[in-house]
Amino acid sequence: MKNIIAFAGSNSKNSINKDLVTYASTLVENATINILDLNDFELPLYGIDLEHEQGIPENAHKFLNLIKESDGILLSLAEHNGAYSTVFKNLFDWLTRIEGKMFYNKPMLLMATSPGGRGGLSVLEIAKGRFPFHDSNIVEVFSLPFFGNNFADGKITNEDFNGQLKNATEQFNKQI
Ligand SMILES: Cc1cc2nc3c(=O)[nH]c(=O)nc-3n(C[C@H](O)[C@H](O)[C@H](O)COP(=O)(O)O)c2cc1C
């Protein structure tokens, strides 16, 4: 069995990106899915002075090890002001202080959703441009716009978007 980690780039208790990544995880075959919540990996706000004074927090090491030991990553990014949410950027910054190549070339299905019509396209563009510097292996990218209209009862209700996600997870399945 493959070992997949799935998480949202959000710390919202009602994260729609966590809903999406959880649904996507049900489409992955022959794998044990570990759904992570960034609230369980609390980290201080990154600062170079803090790092010099206190070192790198244990939770950053824990999270990085989960990536390292996984066979693939399902990640759905929340978009805040056209970019990463603060909690995700903070985690990203801490992780890169331990290991620049922090994605370890693990196959990744990169997603985003938002209540609006762009479905997190801006943050996806940022991630697609940046993650390759950190040894990412982005197999597929999927965006779900208008979350409130297209998702209910734990799954995507719109057939076209559901088909797109199924195709994306199929490609992901082939890579893990
Ligand atoms: C500070 C802030 C900025 C936001 N900026 C954007 C944005 O630029 N684009 C967008 O589509 N949604 C934006 N939103 C709405 C989020 O997409 C929405 O809150 C969504 O639920 C976030 O994902 P999450 O539920 O997984 O945390 C913003 C929300 C907040 C709180």
From TrEMBL:
Record's protein name: NADPH-dependent FMN reductase
PANTHER family noted in UniProt: CHROMATE REDUCTASE (PTHR30543), NAD(P)H-DEPENDENT FMN REDUCTASE LOT6 (PTHR30543:SF21)
GO cellular component: cytosol
A GO molecular-function annotation: oxidoreductase activity
Domain of life: Bacteria
SUPFAM superfamilies listed in its UniProt record: Flavoproteins
Family matches, as Pfam families: FMN_red
Domain NADPH-dependent FMN reductase-like per the UniProt entry, residue ranges: 3-129
Native organism: Confluentibacter flavum
